[in-house]
Design goal:
alpha/beta; D-Maltodextrin-Binding Protein, domain 2; 2 domains; 10-stranded mixed β-sheet
Length: 337
């Protein structure tokens, strides 16, 4: 058993089967669920003949790669959320991608200024609103602290990476003092202690425990189209694309990074560039219900049904820079208490 495959066993990873006669390969560590990424990697192998070995885990991949050092088999790290992306860069386990294809395809605000990461797809942090009790169809993030919503908002933990990114964006937009004031106002409007995940937020809105909840765009689509047990939660709610005052909707990224000691660097670069291509982007749009990073790729009809997304212009790297401040503020205001 190779060292890479041994590592996969330790991490309870899933390896895609190698095609007969395949000599070229690329090793991917990922936080994405196997069922979401397998169609991508199978299509990549079909197009290029390069086999994809996959380690999938829910946490600890950055630490694993760092511990493996220059003997790490990792070529590519595929992850979700700017938090995970930033943690990988801070751990010193990446290298600049250095791809003209990525620089030309991925808008600058969705790339690392130093070239260590690039967004591959987007998701927005939005409002799940009760169809029966919420008549308005436009909400600002700033408005979530308005007392008119007192006792009417549900949300998962303020320390979760999805909320951390939203709160960090607020800090980047308005400064630390105003962000603290806003978080206190948002906390005062909560119907219950932050708990569960985005799906449970929709559940609680549907049950009448709150009128609006905060969640990612793709969860609503997954509930509506892929999960009959949770479809009633989606049917009881509508998705509102909130915006910052004078700005757009907060988006986050699924991102890709090139490992510092990638043993198959050339194949890693081929995979990264392929993921930004039209075929992969369409798979992201239709299988994962995400917004393509590549301009011109059609949206999935469910996602398009939310309305036109005007993504905020704030560079993702500036949001990453405020993650620690946002986390500190969540504790300071006792958001999760």
């Amino acid at each position: 058993m190779s060292r890479f495959r041994a590592a996969a066993v330790v991490l309870a990873a899933v390896l895609l089967p190698l095609p007969a006669g395949a000599a070229e390969q690329v090793n991917v560590y990922t936080y994405r669920e196997t069922k979401l990424v397998q169609p991508l990697f199978e299509a990549f192998t079909k197009d290029t003949g390069i086999a994809v070995n996959v380690i999938s885990a829910s946490s600890g991949l950055e630490q694993r790669i760092k511990a493996e050092g220059d003997k790490s088999p990792a070529d590519v790290l595929l992850t979700v959320d700017i938090g995970r992306i930033d943690e990988a860069v801070q751990a010193g386990i990446t290298q600049p991608i250095g791809s003209a294809v990525i620089d030309e395809t991925v808008p600058a605000r969705y790339r690392d200024p130093n070239g260590h990461w690039a967004g591959i797809s987007m998701r927005a942090r939005v409002i799940y609103a009760s169809k029966d009790r919420v008549k308005q169809n436009a909400i600002t993030y700033e408005e979530l602290a308005d007392p008119k919503w007192k006792g009417k908002i549900c949300i998962r933990s303020g320390q979760h990476i999805y909320n951390n990114a939203l709160f960090a964006a607020y800090v980047a937009k308005h400064g630390e003092a105003k962000a603290e004031e806003w978080l206190r106002g948002l906390k005062a409007n909560l119907a219950q202690k932050p708990s569960g995940g985005d799906r449970e937020t929709a559940r609680d809105v549907a049950a009448g425990k709150c009128d609006i909840g905060i969640g990612n765009t793709y969860y609503w689509a997954l509930m509506m189209n892929n999960d009959p047990d949770k479809k009633p939660w989606a049917e009881a709610t509508k998705v509102i694309l909130p915006t910052f005052e004078g700005g757009g909707t907060h988006v986050n990224l699924s991102g890709v990074l090139l490992a510092k000691h990638a043993p198959n660097k050339a194949n890693g670069l081929k995979l990264i560039e392929w993921l930004a291509g039209e075929k992969a982007q369409q798979i992201y749009a239709d299988a994962n219900y995400e917004y393509p990073i590549r301009p011109g790729v059609p949206l999935n009809p469910t996602i398009a049904g939310y309305g036109k997304l005007t993504a905020d212009s704030l560079p993702i790297a500036k949001i990453a820079a405020e993650r620690k401040t946002a986390s500190t503020l969540v504790d300071k205001v006792g958001f999760d208490n």
